[in-house]
Design a protein that fits this description.
Elements lengths: L4 E8 L2 E8 L9 E5 L12 H12 L3 E5 L15 H14 L5 E6 L1 H13 L7 E5 L19 E6 L7 H8 L7 E3 L10 H13 L1
Parallel strand pairs: 3-4, 3-5, 5-6, 6-7, 7-8
Antiparallel strand pairs: 1-2, 2-4
Length: 208
């Protein structure tokens, strides 16, 4: 992504996890953001444009950003596990790259579904300071509710014209929680042509 991007080889539940670390140039990182990518069986990787945009937003705000490939993607060992093994691997990534200090979590589509469960697996002892869920795959997966105490730290973004995950499904997930959603008019699932706006919204949330 830039000259400050580093390749990482981490250990997951079933072997190697391929990852990238983006660091803010010339700054001591304020914390670590771990970012999860879209569905592995439909071309999702840590190089996805939305995932890269999330990483850039956190780096701009002075955080280091960790992107990683779920099991079975790229050089990561293992095979697709419907989110269960992927959540375990994300917890392992957090343990190896963000064992201490401020933590932020973000996910796009399938990655948002996995991230929701990781938040609940980590519990209050390692709760993220910032949580960003984009295009949350509520129509296809059982997305975990966001703990009430994290609502003020959470940004849920969804495109009005998302043809992969319906806005209605995300509203149905958020409504029982009274969890606010930021809806972006005219935007599709992959934020085509609107990645700068996505970055601006995430930067505003992280800096708030």
């Amino acid at each position: 992504m830039n000259s400050a991007t580093q390749n990482l080889t981490l250990e997951g539940e079933v072997g190697v996890i391929e990852a990238l670390l983006d660091v803010p140039a010339g700054l001591q990182a304020r914390g670590t953001a771990v970012i999860a990518h879209p569905h592995p069986l439909f071309g999702g990787t840590m190089h996805n444009k939305v995932v890269q945009t999330l990483a850039r937003a956190f780096v701009q705000c002075g955080w280091q950003a960790v992107r990683f490939n779920f099991r079975g993607v790229g050089a990561s060992a293992g095979q697709y596990d419907e989110g269960r093994g992927e959540a375990l691997d994300m917890v392992r990534v957090i343990a190896q790259t963000a064992a201490s200090g401020p933590l932020a979590l973000a996910g796009f589509s399938f990655g948002a579904f996995v991230t929701s469960h990781v938040v609940n697996m980590l519990g209050t002892e390692r709760a993220p300071e910032k949580l960003v869920l984009v295009g949350t795959a509520a129509s296809r997966f059982d997305v975990a509710p966001v703990p009430q105490e994290l609502h003020a730290r959470t940004l849920v973004l969804h495109g009005e014209q998302d043809d992969t995950v319906s806005l209605q499904s995300v509203m149905d997930w958020a409504r029982p929680q009274s969890l606010p959603i930021t809806v972006i008019p005219g935007v599709s699932h992959f934020f085509h042509g609107q990645l700068p706006l996505l970055k601006t919204l995430v930067v505003g949330h992280v800096q708030a």
